[in-house]
Amino acid sequence: MTTKSLVIRPVQVTDARAYLCFLNQVVQETPFLPIAAENLAMSEAFCELTLRAVLDSSTDALWVAVDGAKIVGAARLVSEPEPGLQHIGEISVAVLKTYWRQKIGTQLLDALLQAISASGQPRRIVLTVQARNQGAIQLYQQFGFQIEAKLEAGYYDPAVGMLRVLQMVRLINIE
Questions:
Q1: DSSP for 57-124, written as a single string
Q2: Is 43 helix (H, G, I), strand (E, B) or coil?
Q3: Residue partners of 11: CB distance under 8 A and separation at least 6
Q4: What are the residue ranges spanned by the domains of the chain?
Q5: What is the pLDDT of residues 141-157, one digit of tens each?
Q6: Distance between CA atoms of 139 and 118, rounded to whole angstroms?
Q7: Which of 4, 59, 99, 154 lies 20 to 30 angstroms, CA to CA, from 81?
Q8: What phi-psi label fits residue 38: left (phi over 0), alpha (psi between -120 and 50 degrees) or beta?
Q9: What is 6-171's CATH number?
């Protein structure tokens, strides 16, 4: 599916229902996302609270790709709250399958990394990706992420068993 009305922007509290629909759909479409069941079962009101917390945070962020009223992709940053770890943030990116190969993940990641760079925090960006997800690995490498570790049996997929995952890292605002 191609779209000309796609908008990349920070999430809004009013996106709660659309964001829940997105999460429920994307987890069904791809084996690459380990989304906790409680995240899929949250109410719209709780999702609104979660999105408000993200918006009120100086170190967390959530950008969405919106086609009309539908969220078709998201890039999330979650930072560590502990003082000695606040310089570390973990990112994740997901796009609905019908929107794959349209550079939406690229646009989301670019917007998120620009926001991180402008804010100055976090400075160590980490992510975990299944080794079989070569498209995502190539995307992250295009943005300067490097493989820091390979973890055997780092993820269990009931359909195929234990899988290797890669931990990738990019340092930002560190001289």
A1: -SS-EEEEEEETTEEEEEEEEEE--SGGGTTEEEEEEEE-GGGTTSSHHHHHHHHHHHHHHHHT--SE
A2: coil
A3: 19, 51, 54, 55, 62, 63, 64, 74
A4: 6-171
A5: 999 999 999 999 999 88
A6: 21
A7: 154
A8: alpha
A9: 3.40.630.30
